[in-house]
Amino acid sequence: MASPPLDRDDLEWEKDWNSRSATSSSFRLPRRTRRATYLCWAVVLATVYFLVHSATRWTVPDAGSFFKAPEPFIPLRFPNLYSTLQRVVGNGASRKWNRNVVFVTGNLTAASKMAGIACDMAEYRRSNVHLALMGFDTFDLNDFRRINGLPAVEEDEYDETKGCRVFLHDARPDNAELLSAERRVVATKSALRHINEFIYPQAFLVDTLNEEEWFLEIVREKSVQMKRTLIELGANSVDDLKWLTRLDSGSLNAWHTPTFEIVIHADTHTGNLERLLKSIQNAYYPSKEHHPKRITIVLDPFVPIHPFLKDFLRSYSFPEQSRISIKRPLLPKDDPQAAARNYVESFYTLSEDHSVLFLDPNTELSKWYCHYLLYTTLEYRYSFYQSTDASTLYGISLESPPTDLTGASSPALPHTNAPFLYPLPTSRAALFFPQHWTEFHSYLSHILNPPSNPGKRNLTAPAPATFALPAALTSSWHSTFTSLARARGYTMLYPSFKETLARVHSEIPSHAGRSKPEARLLEKSFLELLPQADLPQWTKIEMRDVCGKPTDSDAVIDAAVAYRNSITTCHLPTTPYRAFEVDDLFCDADGKVVL
Predict the structure, then answer these.
(1) Are residues 220 and 188 in contact, defined by beta-carbon separation less than 8 angstroms?
(2) How far apart are CA 218 and CA 238, in angstroms?
(3) What fold is seen in the domain 82-253?
(4) Which listed residue, 5, 28, 211, 388, has the most CB atoms within 10 A of its CB?
(5) Which burial class, exposed, middle or buried, applies to 123 when counting CB atoms under 10 A from its CB (0-12, 13-18, 19+)?
């Protein structure tokens, strides 16, 4: 019987299979299966490599480690901290603005050093001084009190007759010696947080010389987070920054607030300018943050720049090259008014904390000039007790006044080396505060540019002097500033040291003779030269009038009112006065404000 005929599809399948068998010697997996196989082999090879590579680093574990218990978790507790914090809460510590400052310490060496500084500060009773022991030592607290002269018990901290009045806080955690490095970091942060929440300190003070770097980093970090002022005391701070212990909590809170820049109007003596810039660079500064923010050098437009000066200015890089500005104005020759405008326009600011230090190019600064400026500025402008009374202080001079208003002689200096107040300005070496300088800008601008409306003619003008004024004063901006200072009762603080903080060199040849010998620069700290090693209270500072004669605050106010009435038609009872504004000084003939 014949077999049935094959289907066409069967013939095609057999032909295709035979062709595959003939052309391929082995069976090929599908593409997806091949990828999975390659991946498996890669994992196997990587595992083998890891095992072989790690075998060379294996060590035989200690048999005891299998039976060693894990390290116990030690909770962070401060058993001795809360009791002392609770004692100061009722002393106004919970208020945002208080008198509290805290010295924070992380080891015994730093704690002993800071205890001495804290005791010096506590003697002046201007702040509530706290000392926080945040280390991990196990020394006895009573021994620390006895060695460092602190009150023997907590109750004696409020008794002024028993040791220095420093509030001691034991901020060491329980079982401190058992804590790991990570737990010590957490404990330090927690202690700082507790102190901040209870005391609200105006400032933290830390010793950067004897503290470990990790501790300093934590204190810096937490100070920023808690928005607290941090004062870092480094090498020689006990001697160089001894004046810091005289400041109150308000001044310490503003430690980083006041800033200044330097403006120098150069003349023909290029060598003197180099000497001045070197003295600025070599001076002592409390910290890098207290360097001048900018140094502006205004060159004389009528004198060619000496090649040596050009090379020196190119290489000069203090405080930084980017903070140095060189200007060469375009001025008409022999025009005093244009020169005065150029001088006044060289500085202007909207900040209430950024001042300007004008320096004569022939000046040489003492190394202590910045310390003195910062000390007096913090004391009289940022103190909780004296900032309001000292609102009439428009600047601080680094030298005694060279002459009085007539230019004949200098005013009589105090016999006690104490600073004194004098209304006349100086630009040889003097710091001007921003609010008063911007007010002077407005005052000078309105005098030079009166209103264009003839019906509102400005009748304000400096009163004629009853004595002869020197030509140098009448032709410069000093006369206009003096007029404003007299109308407002403003004064400048002048030192009376025998040695000076700024020496202005005279270019008179030695054989020609000088009117008086140049004062020596102050080489040691000025603090010991002050009466009782402290600045006087504002109400007790000696004052001089425009003629250099002794006066008092009541007489200054009366003289200011009289002078104001002599230069303007504005009436005091009807013209409103706004601080550091000049609206009340410019009126028409009817007494109406023209601004």
Answers:
(1) no
(2) 23
(3) Rossmann fold (3.40.50)
(4) 211
(5) middle
Question: Which of the two residues, 458 and 445, has the higher pLDDT score?
Answer: 445
Q: Which residues make Cβ contacts (< 8 Å) with residue 143, sequence separation at least 6?
A: none
The residues with which 500 forms a beta bridge, in sequence order, are 521
Helix (H, G, I), strand (E, B) or coil at 90: helix
Mean pLDDT, the chain, whole residue set: 84
d(CA 327, CA 325): 7
The CATH superfamily label for domain 259-507+519-585 reads: Spore Coat Polysaccharide Biosynthesis Protein SpsA; Chain A (3.90.550.10)
Ranges of beta strands (E only) in 403-510 are 420-422, 429-432, 491-494, 502-504
Q: What's the whole-model pTM score? A: 0.84
Domain boundaries, the chain: 82-253, 259-507+519-585
H-helix or E-strand spanning residue 336: helix 336-345
Which DSSP symbol is given to 390?
Answer: G
Cβ-contact 467, 391 below 8 angstroms:
no
Q: How many CA atoms lie within 13 A of 34 on its CB side?
A: 5
| Whole-angstrom distance, CA of residue 511 vs CA of residue 518 | 15
Question: What is d(CA 111, CA 125) in angstroms, rounded to the nearest whole number?
Answer: 21
Kindly report, residue by residue over 99-157, the tens digit of the pLDDT: 999 999 999 999 999 999 999 999 999 999 999 999 898 889 999 998 998 887 665 56
User: Position 2: which residue type?
Assistant: A
Asked if residues 432 and 441 have their Cβ atoms less than 8 Å apart, the reply is no
Strand, coil or helix: 352: coil
Longest dimension (CA), the chain: 156
Q: Where are the beta strands (DSSP E) in 304-353?
A: 324-327
The two structure tokens encoding residue 335: 């025009």
